[in-house]
Amino acid sequence: MKKIYSMLHGLGYCVLSLLMIACYGDFLEIEPNRKLAVPTTLKDLDALMDNTTLLNANALLIMGEIGTDDYYLNETDWNSLTNPYQKNGYVWAKDIYEGQQCPGWNNAYQKILYANVVLESITKLERNHKNEVQWNRIKGTALFWRAWQFFQLAQIFCDDYQKETANQKMGIPIRLASDINQPNTRATIEDTYQQIVQDLTEAGDLLPALAEEKTRPSKQAVYALLARTYLQMKDYALAKVQAEKCLSISDVLIAYSEVNSRLNYPFPLYARGNTEQPLLDAMIRTQTFASFLKIDTTLLRSYEAGDLRVATYFSVSNGYYVFKGTYNGYATYNPFPALDEVYLIRAECNERLGNHEDALRDLNNLLIHRYQKGAYEPKTMEHTKNILTEILNERRKSLIFRGVRWSDLRRLRTEAPYAKTIVRVLGNKKFELSPEQEHLYTWPIPDNVINLGGITQNVR
């Protein structure tokens, strides 16, 4: 198995360079050793899909978080940033990378390569009554990880989904095989999302309802991600269906009154025992979020008395509020949809579909688990002016640093009541991101990928 990992870590990166995916440093100099072992058994493929160091880490949605309004940096800290994409991304600059690598892009396509190798290899192995469960799980896992990477890439590197233009605008390069001779072109946004849905739908038919380990995907994880995907597509009926399928498997919310908010990280380590989190994943660790972020004061003021999210999500360091409420139970942030997000997706879909009482029921059910016992007064139809506004506000307050705020800003920028202009102030300089600046809501394709040719750059 060590040979297999060597092949996919070394050769994998080199293959990616030929696929117009940038490689890291020394890997460019490595000539693939064709004598290395290749995966030939279910055990081999299982081991590849259990490579948690690769698959459950370095999620690229952190790149979207860099541009959001949930935090701010002061001028001194901003000047201290050493990575161009973190520094330039904070002010939505035209030149993001300054010629350097984009780890988010690289990591995503490496994971896609792993998934494609497994999907190609498993077709050569017979499925029979003895291995059917394992065979199905391995194929479903590969489809899931590929879809999850495609989804994340779509949130960062192509425009937000608009049904009217999705067939005309550029999506991402969709790699469905490890063959280096595939054309290097970008699919449309419509084709990008349809591939995500197709992979997840097939994965859902193959995976178990719940996984034995949080590092492995499951039907529940598939339905949660489909719910998020359809929400981005503004298909509220289908998003609701997927949310309901997810919650039908398990709908247990955490009572924050039973969480020890005094801990540095209040939630269970590696999400084990976290009833809301179907999957362990971790966003890329960045200097911005590890050392310098300060929670937006307007966001802090939006929490009411008795709301335990303040003590559970935040702590004070050097006079500023910082974030500690990761569902991973340690320093990295988990971007994968948890059940609180699924409740909020169903609530939003119900409200947009005219099911007002159902929307309030989900909202109240979530919030009663977030307040001190007896402190939350359920919202009613008579006393709630705008249910959708309440739901969207709770998305921001509940899902901070979960990889969704950037996507929400993108999808809501065309809805006047919910569109927002973000302002950054650094010394005497002011930077703004308005809803009309569509091009700034899409990150550029990394410079080295463009330089290799075959990929069209985003307008910036």
UniProtKB/TrEMBL annotation:
Coiled coil: none annotated. Residues 26-231 form the SusD-like N-terminal domain. Pfam families: SusD-like_3, SusD_RagB. Keywords: Cell outer membrane, Membrane, Signal. Residues 341-458 form the RagB/SusD domain. It is found in: Cell outer membrane. SUPFAM superfamilies: TPR-like. It comes from the Bacteria. Its main location: membrane. Belongs to the SusD family. This is RagB/SusD family nutrient uptake outer membrane protein. It comes from Arcicella lustrica. The lineage of its organism: Bacteria, Pseudomonadati, Bacteroidota, Cytophagia, Cytophagales.
